[in-house]
Specification:
Blueprint (H helix, E strand, L loop, with lengths): L2 H30 L8 H13 L18 H16 L5 H27 L2 H13 L1 H5 L7 H16 L8 H15 L8 H12 L4 H29 L10 H8 L12 H4 L9 H20 L3 H13 L5 H6 L10 H28 L8 H15 L15 H21 L1
Helix pairs in contact: 1-4, 1-5, 2-3, 3-4, 4-5, 4-7, 4-18, 5-18, 7-8, 8-10, 9-10, 9-17, 11-13, 16-18, 17-18
Length: about 425
Amino acid sequence: MPVASAEHRSRWWLLGIVAVGSCLRVAWALYATRPAVGLHDPTFYSIFAGQIADGRGYRLLDGQPTAYYPVGYPAALAAVYWLADLLDVVHDRLSLVVALNLAAAGASFALVFEVGRRLFDHRVGLVAAAGLALMPNLVFHTGLALTETLFNAVALAAVLVVVATSWRERHVGALVAFGALVGVSALIRPPSLLFVPVLALAGARSAGWGWREGLRSLVVPALAAAAVIAPWTVRNIVVMEAPVLISTNMGDNLCIGNNPAASGHFQPEPSCLDGYGALRRPELEVRRDADNRRRGIEYIRNEPLAQIRLVGLRLLNTFRNDTDGLRAAESYGDDPFIPGPTRTALGVAANVTFFATLVLGLASLVVCRGRDQRRPGRVFVALAGASLAVTPLAFFGDPRFHVPVVPFLVVGAAAVLVAGLDRLRAR
């Protein structure tokens, strides 16, 4: 079959995948979208987005300023709220959460297709897009005011800029676009900042870059990302009265994950959180963040051997299951509405799909080691995915933290499946 014809047909297949993935998400949203119950992340993200959309700024309901959560996701959701209010089209803000997630998920299917197609071929792209569309846990995230769905779309856009441009002639425009997208994604989930040094590392390792090209690939994206993040940092200097780069929760996360009682998962530690009751924001957040950074670093320095045990526990807790979206849909146990047998079946489907993808994704690191497979773009994608996977190992583990790694895993899994099919055909 001519290449042009195959690629044309692949676009129609992609359209079908987007349609199926979207229908699954709409069906799940109709069944499971409910107001968040309890003081969990979806509650806070919804509150912050509403405050921004209503013109009050990034503040708590009592008017106190905050920078505890990165602003990217609440700001994006607030923009959707604001636009809906302006056009007077949708007044149910839960429906707007679903709309944003549907748009981001659909974009992710197309983006992961392009990444897979450019790294391998259109068949890998289609299988990767189908894997992302059908992944149960990603479907469960549809009705949730959580960062993962939007982050995956923006992170994949940054990755596509890298794999779609020449490694021999890395243009400044592409580096700026990559850095800007990294900056946007970091305002949603900061670990994506590691994509910038990963690009330089992949270029030096697999593209034969000298120090000049390596330095340019590091400095230009870093400056572009900094330019995107700078307005938020300036806001924090003015409103929070401190040079907070992105958020004030890193200190809490570091202390919760590094103390004598740390267990490798999220477990509030009184020594990290108590003693600030007399303070109000912004002083409370800024001081506790600084104190807890110091406490966490001191524990790591004084108890280095404890990190061996804790890193293992964090890794286990991050990848122990793929049902975080299911738990979040029920407000982490505060609103159990799914019948027990249904919940069990959905959890089994999510875990089986995820662990199969994880095994195949990791296998791609071995299967795709031929000379042709060691293209710089493939090295970059592997390292970028790994950077997102290892970030929680410095803090604490949670299954939600591996969700941003899933798009990278499905590309590798797709490559293994297509390679296996080709070998069967060859026989």
